[in-house]
Design goal:
Layout (H helix, E strand, L loop, with lengths): L5 H28 L3 H28 L6 H33 L4
Helix pairs in contact: 2-3
Length: 107
Amino acid sequence: MSTIDVNNLLAQMRQLSAQVRPAETALKAAPAATADFGALLKQSIASVGGSQQQAGQMAASFERGDPGANLGRTMVAIQKADLSLRAMTEVRNKLVDAYKDIMNMPV
């Protein structure tokens, strides 16, 4: 097993963090541009699915031992995919709870 260079790993994590920040700014501006909740929900689900696929591909590439595979980036992609899936699950739970509350309201 190879030794992991901590400084190199930290530098890669900082680089990935810097790449994510512009994407976060774009996501904050997107809901104001689209007023359709259904389209926003579909886009979010597609984004979660894409991150899951990307993480799976990176993990498979690392497991195969491909020369371009990077452990740090693979782990970050897996964690991002896991976090986005958990967030989507919580949103779904809140939507179901809101639906149940509305259905139980007296008319």
